[in-house]
């Protein structure tokens, strides 16, 4: 990602770095010293932030405090860095301001406390079983948020996952799991944000002696805090001090201490979750098949057996007070009702205990009513001799169909999280570690689990294999396929000092790489984390479903009672003929069947699944297409975009500046002129300075630009062809100034020269104007107060820029260009790409004001920038899109990260959001229309006219299928294809 060419600034200013994840906070070290000794700097852990708007709120709250000089909030790090005057403001006032803004705040003792402070907030993931609808989710979230030490809690119905931010010094993960279980749900811990824990599978434990040997080895390992061995699952959980012990050291220590008897395998948390999903679906399938095998005989006894004389005679054989068929039905259905159907009673009980209601309450109520009535009818017949019809099959088939629906729903929901599984599979399972002696010489190699790689390890990557982690090449050269991250199909050359990304494929030669980022810090892990976070988030539209779900069950039960009393009273008063009653039936039974059908046909689950399943599928589809979406709120906002504001450099253009023209206006030789300019620019790291260095070096030596990361200033140090430079300084927004061989040199824009009293001759001005009108940036060079030459620098447009702009216009989105470059260059570039509205000579802070001016009318504005210099504008926009992220994907201010550096992904992002919310609306239509139509039909609204009624078991089948239909509707998004520009532009190719 290239920083932008704002006001021909020829050297990099503070903060214009590569965007490393801690650089925003670390950059204040020098600044704090400059601000004086009377100021103090602290860091605050901020929990509860979910998007750039949250971090802006925290920043705004902090900056409103009198005495706060500077406040910067890092969203992904959940930290705020504050510089303030301790004589005007106290620490408590800072934390109180954050809490008043709606977030949790905890003071960190020092900038690095986030790594060493044992009392920080830990984010733990829990599998929560037994949730069936949005009401369950609200109930669990409410319970978790009330626990002492819990900072935040988010529960996702679609994945049965809960993320809990908690203080481990106040509450443990076991306490959280117990609280969930006490509420009647199932809970198991998956993983946390702690970096000092590893879960291992142990092979070789055959008895008590082996278990004791394992415990003895772990007890002697220095750095192991505590461990837990589950003898049933053979899983070993080890908590260790990462400053003393590494994860690989734990494995090596155990395997070495047992003399090879034990073999330890690292448990990938995502693999463990996938196995749990499979286990859950298998459990649901077993319950369904068991219920079906017991229910079918009950149906056969009612429908088929009367047609078979021998079987019918057996069923009507009097056995005690009842016939044999009644005994069999009662026995079979009792097993289904209270054995297989126990889960519904448990779930309904916990919901009622927590003051909420859900689908389980409806199922338990409907099936119990049918079962109890049937039992009472049998007993009443035995006592009075008047035998009423029983409806045991209704209860059994209801449970069977509901379990079928839950099984199909589990399978469908599992498919919505397929994107995470695909991303996890990109990382290789093993890696080749090079073993070195004390002198640093390679003495051997060994294959290790990729999850055991530690920072600093030297790894060997063979041709055709995947790079195991992020790192730097220390030996060898090869071409690497990075399409999984950048989308670029062309292989990238990797030489010494080149950066490589984990999960990419080494094509040809062998490489030795040094691991720099491992575990959760790798690019692939951050992508997975972003997708997971997005899938856990709730779109604002889901609040509607949550509200409906909270009142749904009480409303349905009320409607069921009204149905019962309506039909019963009408019958008693003669409102309908007795011919409508079932054989041997009465008004009570007739009314009860309608009431039960109303209870069991209503489905709150469909409403609760409408949004989260669609968001899950959409975020996964987006990740597969190189578009990372940070949440459901971003998805919802993007479909309303009216204006898209583009940065110029690095966004519309390639961000690779090249000198196209060099003109000398004095008698100076061109080579001497270029040597002078190159000498001055050798001290700069700015991309424009590098372009000038490339041009000058090529002029002198016909060299090609280097592909390595070695800086030009470092190359120049040993070159010998540059002149001596002193008093070098940067003038942000203007250029640079320095002394070259004792002569004062200025290189920059017009403003730099005019402010120094240097007149620009008309021929020079005309030349610069000509450059600017041809979309080039003109740079003036003056020596000893005389203009001696000028350079023209061009940044080529991206080949798809013009087509994408036209495509956005066709989609009803107005493109706007905002740049810090001069007006002539800006207009020339805008004309070339087809943008009508241009704002030029705008500083980075001013871009946010431009965005706010478009937002005043209530329009939704998107900002597309490079994610580094444009962070204020990305944060100010309703939807921030960081393009060309490369290895720096953790961009805090943007809601969308467009991984593939391709402007076409802007159209993909908008189109995907539109299709997702169209699908969500269809989901709500399915869910709402189902309940609006089905409930009156079940209540008997069509019975007087058409004699149409829904038996309770049919109503149960309809209810079970409604949830499945909504999930399958969301899964339809998996068929999403990126829009073809030819289709958008309505181009017909002959």
Automatic annotation (TrEMBL):
GO molecular function, a single term: P-type divalent copper transporter activity
Chief location: membrane
Keyword Membrane annotated: yes
Biological-process GO terms, alphabetical: copper ion homeostasis; plant-type hypersensitive response
Signal peptide boundaries: none
Pfam families, alphabetized: E1-E2_ATPase, HMA, Hydrolase
Domain of life (superkingdom): Eukaryota
Record bears the keyword Repeat: yes
Keyword field: ATP-binding, Copper, Copper transport, Ion transport, Membrane, Metal-binding, Nucleotide-binding, Repeat, Translocase, Transmembrane, Transmembrane helix, Transport
GO cellular component: membrane
Coiled coil feature spans: none
Compartments, record wording: Membrane
InterPro entries, sorted: ATPase_P-typ_cyto_dom_N, ATPase_P-typ_P_site, ATPase_P-typ_TM_dom_sf, ATPase_P-typ_transduc_dom_A_sf, ATPase_P-type_domA, HAD-like_sf, HAD_sf, Heavy-metal-associated_CS
Record-annotated HMA domain positions: 40-106, 122-188
Membrane topology listed for this record: Peripheral membrane protein
Listed transmembrane segments: 292-315, 361-383, 389-408, 544-567, 587-610, 924-946, 952-973
PANTHER family: COPPER-TRANSPORTING ATPASE RAN1, P-TYPE CATION-TRANSPORTING ATPASE
Family: Belongs to the cation transport ATPase (P-type) (TC 3.A.3) family. Type IB subfamily.
Protein name: Copper-transporting ATPase RAN1 isoform X1
Protein species of origin: Nicotiana tabacum (Common tobacco)
Organismal lineage: Eukaryota, Viridiplantae, Streptophyta, Embryophyta, Tracheophyta
